[in-house]
Structure formats: C-alpha cells, structure tokens
Specification:
Keywords: Glycosyltransferase, Transferase
Order of helices and strands: HEHEEHHEHEHHEHEHEEHH
GO biological process, one term: lipopolysaccharide core region biosynthetic process
Largest sheet: 6 strands, parallel
Number of helices: 11
Enzyme class: transferase
Organism: Salmonella enterica I
Distance between the termini: 39 Å
CATH class of the largest domain: Alpha Beta
CATH topology of the largest domain: Rossmann fold
GO molecular function: ADP-heptose-lipopolysaccharide heptosyltransferase activity
CATH superfamily of the largest domain: Glycogen Phosphorylase B
Number of domains: 2
Structural class: alpha/beta
Helix content: 25-40%
Number of strands: 9
Length: 292
Amino acid sequence: MPLGHGALEIGERRRLGHSLRERRYDRAWVLPNSFKSALIPFFANIPHRTGWRGEMRYGLLNDARVLDKDAWPLMVERYVALAYDKGVMRTAKDLPQPLLWPQLQVSEGEKSLMCSDFSLSSERPLIGFCPGAEFGPAKRWPHYHYAELAKQLINEGYQVVLFGSAKDHEAGNEILAALNSEQQAWCRNLAGETQLEQAVILIAACKAIVTNDSGLMHVAAALDRPLVALYGPSSPDFTPPLSHKARVIRLITGYHKVRKGDTAQGYHQSLIDITPQRVLEELHSLLSEEGV
C-alpha cells in the first residue's frame, strides 16, 4: 500500500478505500489490532469486516471479536480463528489440527535468474542474513556478531547476502565494515536494494538463513529454508518461525517489553550473549541435515 509504516494518513486511507468500492468486496479480515488498519475496509464499504477489537474499533469493524489471550496464545491461532463465525471456536484447542503453515514456492529458474540479476556468484553457495528487526536494535543480534559469523562462513567457502529494508541498510554496512577487503568480496548488502518479491526469490536461493525475530524470518520459514532464529526480549512462544527446519536460540524466558537495549549501541544483553560460535554450530547441524 502507498502508506508509510505507522503513519495514520487518514486522507490517503480514505482515498484508497474509496478506490476499492468498485471491486465490491464482500468481506475483509483485518489482522492487525491498530485503529488505522481498519480504516480502508470501512472506507471501501466492505459489508462484513472481521477482526479482533483491538484499539476500540467499534463501527470500523462490524464483526469485532474480544480476544482472550490465554485462550489464543499464538498469533497464527488468533488469525485462523477469525476465519470462523463468531463463537464457533472458543479456544485454540477447538481449531483443526495440525494447522496448515504458510508455504511459498520458487522455481529453480526464478532463483537462477534473480541471482544473475544481482550478480551473485555461482561459485559459492549462499547463506542469507536478516540483520534488521522492528523497534530498533533491541531485537537485533549485534552487527559485530553477524560480522564474525560472516567471516567464518566466508572462510568455509560460502558467500553471505544481507537482506532487509532500506532502514536496515546501515546495519548491513556496519557488518561489511568489519570485514577485510577479501571477505567483503563475498558479502553483499542488499538491504534496501530489493523489492519484496526479489528478496523472497533470493532467500529461496540460500542454503540457510540466520535471522532476528523479523518479517523475513517468517518468509524464510514459509520457503522451507533451514534457519537459525535469534530471539531476545520478544518471545518465540507468540510468533515462532513455522518450520520444522528452524532452530531458535534464546537465552532468557518470558516476554520483555523492551524498546531500548541495555548498551550504548542499543542491543539487548540477552542477544549480546548469543555467541557467533553457538550460531555457527546450529547452522552446521542444519546444513548437515540438508546434505550440504
């Protein structure tokens, strides 16, 4: 959507909603809990608008559900529950099991072409890093740990590709700056350089992914890529990577509502304490299982 992340921009949302009226949609499911996320379906005059009540969205939603967080502990369960009529599913135990996990598929031809378009060498297998995360560095594994891991992987014969949005580009440059010139030749910072569809295809081309708790983590899981997910204050109990090929590393328990880290650089101590060697060991184990 042509809207800035987090921006209300009510006029633009009204314009976009009005432009959708001619498509005569019957139903909208509003997954985020924010007030602004319910505006476009309302302005589009979509007759049935379903979502959790969230930020007092009376009127905007005409099928507003009251969330019992204990009954629906996982985000994926909360979203699936909205697909059923109100009252049919009272707890997560009522949902059909197993839940279907999101899946993305990319052809070998698409991967080969996209790697060529971004001048990625076919001489070395790709390992992807997703060093960004929402709410700043508090949810990020430190850039110097990513850099140390990149050095070891490059020395083992891999090339490293950094993925993310434009706001993650600086973090990628910090990783690059910690490498020597020979190592930099095998590490590409594509954060902010790709469209989402391009990033999806390139992630599919990677042998494995190392990632913070981020949207691209879920993309890698849906692509069935082996991945090591690094968690700090946010909890994998709520939004885990939905993949049997995912390894989660977290050194603390519970949910910590932290938006600022513990150090001058903003990193959370629990993420600082995850060593590159620990991540490399998990990565080696995953790659071995894949026959790499």
